[in-house]
C-alpha cells in the first residue's frame, strides 16, 4: 500500500497535459493528510480536465480529517462497497494522480527500508484514483480528498519485494496515458486492462531511506518506513 509519493510539479503537469498552470502550493513529498494535485473532469466545462489540490486520503462528509491516515489507498476488490469509498465510486468521481515516483518499505534487510519506485523511462506516472468532496475542511473551506486504487501483486517480480513478510502484496493501479480520459469519464471502469499490473521491466526501484524526522517536515503517524 502506498503511503508516500512524489507529486509531479505543476509546470510539468501543465506541459504534459496541455493545461493552464494551476496556482497552489504543495510539499515535495506527499503523505496521508497532505495536499497534492489531482486531475479530474472539470466541474465547469464539460469534456475538459482540470488540476486541483486535494487531500491525500479520502475524507467523506461524515468523517474527521484524521481518517485520511487510513483511507489513502482503496482496494479495487472492495472500493464499491466500503463506506469510505462507495459514494465516490458510485458517482464516478474518478481522478488521475500525477506522480514522479512512489515509495514502499522493503524488509529484505530484516528491517523496513524505504525504496523509491519510478517508471523505467522516468516519465510521469498516472495513478488511478477516486475523489470526494465535503462542504468544510479544517479551515472551514470546502475540501477535496482522494484515494489511490490498488490491486493484488502477489508473485509480481518487483512488487513482491515490498511490505512486511507474510502480508499480501499490493500495487498501485498505473494508467497508460491513452487511458486517462477514459478513466476520468468512467468509460473504462469495467475494462480489465485497467487493473493489470505493469510489468516489472517498466519500473525501476532503489533504496531511498527517509531523512531524519524534524518538526519542520512531519510525516504521517502511521508511516513506519
From TrEMBL:
Record-linked SUPFAM superfamilies: BB1717-like
InterPro entries tied to this protein: SRAP (IPR003738), SRAP-like (IPR036590)
Any one Gene Ontology molecular-function term assigned to this protein's record: single-stranded DNA binding
UniProt region (Disordered), positions on chain: 206-225
Top EC class, one word: hydrolase
E.C. no: 3.4.-.-
GO biological process, one term: protein-DNA covalent cross-linking repair
Keyword annotations: Covalent protein-DNA linkage, DNA damage, DNA-binding, Hydrolase, Lyase, Protease
Keyword DNA-binding: yes
Taxonomic superkingdom: Bacteria
Family assignment from sequence similarity: Belongs to the SOS response-associated peptidase family.
Protein's recorded name: Abasic site processing protein
Native source species: Massilia eurypsychrophila
Amino acid at each position: 500500500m502506498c503511503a508516500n509519493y512524489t507529486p509531479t510539479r505543476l509546470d510539468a503537469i501543465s506541459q504534459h497535459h496541455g493545461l493552464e498552470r494551476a496556482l497552489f502550493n504543495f510539499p515535495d513529498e506527499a503523505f496521508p493528510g497532505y495536499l497534492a494535485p489531482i486531475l479530474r473532469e472539470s466541474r465547469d466545462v464539460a469534456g475538459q480536465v482540470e488540476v486541483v489540490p486535494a487531500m491525500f486520503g479520502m475524507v467523506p462528509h461524515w468523517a474527521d480529517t484524521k481518517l485520511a491516515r487510513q483511507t489513502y489507498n482503496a482496494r479495487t476488490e472492495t472500493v464499491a462497497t466500503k463506506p469510505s469509498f462507495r459514494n465516490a465510486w458510485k458517482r464516478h468521481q474518478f481522478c488521475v494522480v500525477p506522480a514522479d515516483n512512489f515509495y514502499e518499505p522493503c524488509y529484505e534487510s530484516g528491517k523496513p527500508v524505504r525504496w523509491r519506485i519510478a517508471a523505467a523511462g522516468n516519465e510521469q506516472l498516472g495513478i488511478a484514483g477516486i475523489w470526494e468532496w465535503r462542504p468544510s475542511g479544517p479551515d472551514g473551506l470546502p475540501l477535496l480528498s482522494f484515494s489511490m486504487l490498488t490491486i493484488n501483486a502477489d508473485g509480481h517480480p518487483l512488487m513482491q519485494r515490498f511490505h512486511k513478510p507474510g502480508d499480501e502484496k499490493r500495487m498501485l493501479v498505473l494508467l497508460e496515458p491513452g487511458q486517462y480520459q477514459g478513466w476520468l469519464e468512467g468509460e473504462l471502469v469495467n475494462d480489465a486492462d485497467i487493473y493489470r499490473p505493469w510489468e516489472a521491466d517498466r519500473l525501476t526501484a532503489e533504496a531511498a531511506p527517509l531523512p531524519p524526522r524534524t518538526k519542520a517536515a512531519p510525516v504521517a503517524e502511521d508511516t513506519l518506513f
